[in-house]
Amino acid sequence: MSNRLKVALLGCGVVGSQVIKLMEEQADDLAARIGAPLELAGVAVRKLGRKRDVTFDPALLTTDAEGLVTRDDVDIVIEVIGGIEPARSLILAAMASGKSVVTANKALLAEDGATIHAGGGDLYYEASVAGAIPLLRPLRESLAGDRVKRVLGIVNGTTNYILDKMDSTGASFTDALEEAQSLGYAEADPTADVEGFDAAAKAAILAGLAFHSRVTAADVHREGITDITATDVASAKAMGYVIKLLAICARSDDGRSIGVRVHPAMIPRTHPLAGVREAYNAVFVEAESAGQLMFYGKGAGGAPTASAVLGDLVAVARNRLANTRGPEESVYASLAVHPMGETVTRCHVSLDVADKPGVLAQVATLFAEHDVSIQTVRQEGHGDDAQLVIVTHRATDAALSATMEGLRRLDIVRAIASVMRVEGDD
Q: Which one is catalytic: 202, 237, 298, 356?
């Protein structure tokens, strides 16, 4: 094991520092697993004087990231700086100079994965989705001989923590968010998480792997959780449901297209995903032969994400020694992503209505006009507090949206208090 493999690291933040720590702590085991020792060749950072959470030779630090990734003696590049640029240019430069690449960059892969995959190098990116949970490799390797029908998951720990606290304590969205920020689960600017951008990028990656088709973040229907109220959560709880921000990737019934969406939804408390608490992630995969599979664990954080990075590092190092590559991008199916309006789902609707005869009949007639069948309906309160709570059967999202617009025009409907999709019990 005399032939050392030299590793260049881009970024030394929360994840990068943990990667260095694990490489040092597990050096002997990693060498035994790979068949050659690893050596840290350099660490590219934006500022040299910043305090780091890990101790290593300061001579390894450089602000010349491009010079580092194109060095002749570097074999593998690990990218954990995130964002689109300069990450894209650096990864492509590394590949052009013959390096293998490990990245955790979900935003880049979701926006421009085609360009990155065309770079020509050995590319692994397990850490880009769901942190330490082994998920992407099972999709692109273990299930390569199967036909995936649906991927349904909780892929953002911040939003899951917020919704879990709202469900378990009755807290408002604002209070739950502040608690998540105080514990380090949410950023000072939580927009990427609470508005669903982070989950949408991950959904694009999952859909591309599951259905062998190119999917970008722009293809994903996205809704966040900022409009979820304590009343919504309490209403779901009373019906035996819990609200989760879900990433849902599914084949159409005819198998000719796929739907990819991220939005809050009510799921039965008996569903496996309902018990996913706090900042944990879980992804439910349904395949024709394998059946139902569930992947669960810590979806974020320095150490869990670094664990996934190290797993990929071992894989690319082994490939390099064997002069081979891992699976390339598989987009042979070329399935189109159909618009959200064609997605079939169910809906929970709460209406503030006038308390007088004939209200239910008018509402039911409107639903029927749009071919939306009502599964259950109940009235709560009287007088000014009268409210109708309706759960529909499955219908296209376009039909459900048209029904909501029709309800807003009815004189007997004072307001639509909430609209929530229902998933997981079909």
A: 202
Q: What is the pLDDT of residues 145-193, one digit of tens each?
A: 999 999 999 999 999 999 999 999 999 999 999 999 999 888 999 999 9
Which token pair is 85?
A: 């640029």
Distance set, CA 334 to CA 203, 209, 212, 215, 220 (Å):
17, 12, 7, 9, 16
148 and 287 Cβ atoms separated by less than 8 Å: yes
How many helical (H) and strand (E) elements, i.e. helices and strands, does the chain have?
14, 18
Token pair listed for 295: 């992947």
Q: Return the bridge partners of 3, or none.
A: none
Does the predicted model carry a pTM greater than 0.90?
A: yes
CA distance 395 to 345: 6
Q: Say whether 237 is catalytic.
A: no
Report the run of H or E that residue 165 belongs to, with start and end: helix 157-169
Judge whether 100 and 122 are in contact, CB under 8 Å: yes
CA distance 376 to 219: 33
Contact yes or no for 310/29 (Cβ under 8 A): no
